[in-house]
Amino acid sequence: MATIQTSALPPMQTEHASARALLRTFVIGLTAFLTVVDLFATQAILPKLTQSYGVTPAAMSFAVNSSTMGMAIAGLLVAFFSRHIDRRLGILLSLTLLAIPTALLAVAPNLTAFTALRITQGLFMSTAFALTLSHLAEHCSAADTAGAFAAYITGNVASNLFGRLFAAALVDHLGLAANFYVFAGLNLAGAVLVYFTLGRAKPMVAMPELDRSPLSIWAEHLRNGPLRASFGIGFLILFAFIGTFTFVNFVLAREPLALSQMARGFVFLVFLPSIFTTPIAGRAVERFGARATFWGALVVAGAGLPLLVLPNLVAVLAGLVLVGVGTFFAQATTTGFVGRAATADRASASGIYLACYFFGGLVGTAILGQVFDRLGWAACVTGIGFALAMAALLAGRWTTTKRAI
Q1: What is the rounded distance in angstroms from the CA atom of residue 224 to the CA atom of residue 218?
Q2: pLDDT at 127
Q3: Is the peptide bond before 47 cis (omega within 30 degrees of 0)?
Q4: Which of 3, 269, 291, 338 sits in a 20 to 30 Å window from 405, CA-based?
Q5: What is the pLDDT of residue 142?
């Protein structure tokens, strides 16, 4: 992914360069979409799964979101062994193998088996995710890095929207089993895309010395104050995001809203604005700096929280739009910041960040699930607000440079 310089090119060459840049952005986003489309799609069918397995909402939510446990573990493994993993081959194998547990979910006999398969999914998803982030960091110039990361997170946003819509529609018309078979096919499509589009070019940035131990590199990351704060921020972002978009499904299914399965799927069109706002995160950071941009994103997300507890569908939808726009913008900003703030092996820094990020999702499911079951939705939203406030405090430790993404 070489730098595309357009300022000194003739008009025809400039058009071709712009077309190549647009195509690259599309491929990056589509790769992200096919990598994590399984992650949150299953949340849209939580009430149906809860009924099918005959368990409580908290238990089913934990099983569905246990994929984040596998993602956290894989993030650490990639961080430890990153120097010895071929990026392209690792992404290709991860997406191919991801189709196996996805298909097996169709015949999972009990909640234990379902949970184990979701964890396995997480292992492969996170490996592909982390290796792609490191590939982008190593193969993009400084000028292209922000756009590449924003494109990848935009694909993540699209997977949240269209994955949920697909799942809701498939379950409504074809049943639970067909849903998982279709998503297994999407995983294989991701592997095919990587095979034909991801090049074998050498990294543009220097790789770490092979004689350094992984633990010494980790220690360097953890001594880096802004980077350390970013790991904590990643934990809190997914904690808040999963707390919102997991348990709101039960709010939408119950009185006074009482939406049908298909209607709940269309609710997740609330992610549509995020598809258009997330790509501009890189430009916002260039203009305002990473810290100010991140704080602005959290203000947007926080503004949506009071709307979520109102017994009105329009208010809840508006709240979900604001939380989605704010958290995805914050995620894009933080992911880019990690890629620029790391002073050593960027793949291991991305792996640690993703481990913290997805571990936050798992903890958020466990803690907020109990809060939801015992104290209700308003208390759950209060916990989400506390997580966002803590993330804002940690961002105060970031450097204010405008190039920190």
Answers
A1: 10
A2: 86
A3: no
A4: 269
A5: 56
